[in-house]
Amino acid sequence: MTTLYEKIGGAPAVDAAVEKFYDKVLVDERIKHFFVNTDMAKQRQHQKTFLTYAFGGQPGYNGRGMREAHKPLVEKLGLTDVHFDAVVENLATTLTELGVGPDLIGEVAGIAESIRDDVLCR
Predict the structure, then answer these.
(1) Are 120 and 81 in contact (CB under 8 A)?
(2) Axis-axis angle for helices 81-97, 102-119 (nearest 10)
(3) Residue 23 DSSP code
(4) What is the reported pTM?
(5) Residues 6+ apart with CB under 8 A from 109
(6) Would you write out the chain's pLDDT as a tens digit for each of its 122 residues?
(7) Which of 68, 31, 63 is nearest to 46 (CA)?
(8) Is the dihedral of CA 10, 85, 81, 32 positive or negative?
(9) Integer Cα distance of 34 and 107 in angstroms
(10) How far apart are CA 68 and CA 105, in angstroms?
(11) Is the Cβ–Cβ distance between 115 and 50 less than 8 Å?
């Protein structure tokens, strides 16, 4: 069975998507403040690793859990559904610009929705 990771183009596609995605996020007035004190090289690598796992490109993920990773953002910076939606919007726009079809973007959005409550610590 072909994974979403393979369908979107594997490592080169994930790498390109993460780079372009954070270029958008870091200028998005709705969410850029969440990354002010973030080591973006480390964040980009972390995101590449997570998306590779989430899209079926590797069997395991050794990073922090979604709740643990995002708890300070929820508690100290007020991360909400509005911000989560902005992130998903930026990811969908990025994938569209990279030529990913709407059906695959729908799969990505479904994965994002499946972790919404964990990211928002509810």
Answers:
(1) yes
(2) 160
(3) H
(4) 0.91
(5) 88, 92
(6) 799 999 999 999 999 999 999 999 999 999 999 999 999 999 999 999 999 999 999 877 777 788 999 999 999 999 999 999 999 999 999 999 999 999 999 999 999 999 999 999 99
(7) 63
(8) positive
(9) 26
(10) 26
(11) no
CATH 1.10.510.10 describes domain 4-119: no
Distance CA 23, CA 41 (A): 12
Give the start-to-end residue ranges of the domains of the chain. 4-119
Residue 108's H or E segment, with its range, is: helix 102-119
Residue 57 has what DSSP assignment?
A: S
| Amino acid identity for residue 58 in this structure | Q
Helix (H) or strand (E) holding 27: none
How far apart CA 52 and CA 9 sit, in angstroms, is 11
